[in-house]
Amino acid sequence: MSGPWYLVCLLAGILCMLLLDRRFRLFFWRAPAAAVLVTLAGTGLLLLADAAGIASGVFLRGPATIASGVVLAPGLPLEEPVFLLFLVLCVMVTYTGSVRVLAAWRGRRGR
The whole model's pTM is what? Predict the structure, then answer.
């Protein structure tokens, strides 16, 4: 039995990361054009790596009852690009947040 649960969870995770981003103006709300470029480039590069892994037989699509069952290409489920988008967003929000926290910490420490 297929279901949209994994996709729904990924979309909820993306929404939560965007809410954090908006609240602290870390990535998209700080530099939208740069954020779009980084997100598209990162997701695209990761999709290319996935395609290489699928073509070489390293990445296999197994049974997943929580996935939608929609396949975009042989071995590439719908959830994969959404997951990669979520991954890039998580990395960038975490990175920009960490830079801000470290800068504040260094500023307090230097007093």
Answer: 0.90
The helix-helix angle for 79-109 and 32-55 (nearest 10°) equals: 130
- How confident is residue 19, by pLDDT bands cut at 50, 70 and 90? very high
Q: Which domain holds residue 50?
A: 5-109
| Separation in Å, CA 104 to CA 1, 21, 72, 91, 92 | 50, 18, 44, 20, 18
Burial call 74-87: b when 16+ CB within 10 Å, e when fewer? ebbbbbbbbbbbbe
Contact assessment for residue 57 and residue 46, using Cβ atoms and an 8 Å cutoff: no
- Which is nearest to 85 in space by CA: 56, 46, 51? 46
Structural domain count of the chain: 1
Q: What is the pLDDT of residues 28-53, one digit of tens each?
A: 999 999 999 999 999 999 999 999 99
